Amino acid sequence: MAQIKYSDDELAARAKANVKKYIKQIKAEIVKEAKKQGHNIKESNVKSVTFKKLKGVQYDIFEIKFDKFIITDPQDMIWLDGMTWNNNSPGMANRKLVVGESSEDTYTWQITAGFTVKYESTTEMKIYAPAGGSVSSTWSFAFDFHVTRGIAHKKTHKWEDTFSQDIPPHTKVRMEVCGVQFVGYAPFKMKVRATGQAHCACKIDYWGTHSREFDIDLGRILNQSERTFISEGRVDGVQGYEWNVNSSEPMPLNTADRERLPEGVTEEHLVPHKLSLKGLRK
Q1: Shared domain check, 92 and 153
Q2: pTM exceeds cut of 0.85
Q3: Helix count and strand count (H, E) for the chain
Q4: Tens of pLDDT along 90-124?
Q5: 14 and 84 share one domain
Q6: How far is CA 91 from CA 22, 97, 254, in A?
């Protein structure tokens, strides 16, 4: 992964360098302001100008672009429930399987290159699902200057429905119900521009030594390019979007099954809802 820089630190470094770069012009401004107040000083009286810190910095995003969502796993199945029905009777039967499960759709963001930024917003992206159609997902961002990753979206996805199954006479049928999810990511790039002030200090030798502090608008010492920061990143996520129901072909009950099973329809969950794990220790 590329090295990620803190935008505040980089902006301060750029401001400090340009205070030195434009020190002659800054001294001229100091002299000009001093003369307005009746002090007849010259640039030679301004002995030093020092950058101290940034003040009132804000980063405004003027461009953010998400590329197309790239699906890396289009059929990530979550097994929800299943049933096997045994119809030990001479007539057609029908049974229903009620599924009430939940899973969690989660998206995370990360800055992968460039600079950390301070930014809070939400964005909605339409994602084309593998089986057709689309889903919309809303991502929330809360970037700051100290972290490079976080949660963009987390929501419990409800899988609730009732499924009907015909069971022919003297057969068994197995039904499996899965929730379909896809896994993927969307790259993004954003550009921000800083505004604020460079807080500086100067020493003036004029009838003694005097220290003064003052502010310079960043726009006066840094051009737009020098106040612009570009961050690249990606949103990775898991999204649930439809059911996957699979029923086996009816299989005839063999003689042993017909003798063992009671008359009528019996059912067996594919995985018990409760497990009793006893006797693991001797």
Answers
A1: yes
A2: no
A3: 4, 12
A4: 999 999 999 988 888 899 999 999 998 878 888 88
A5: no
A6: 95, 20, 17
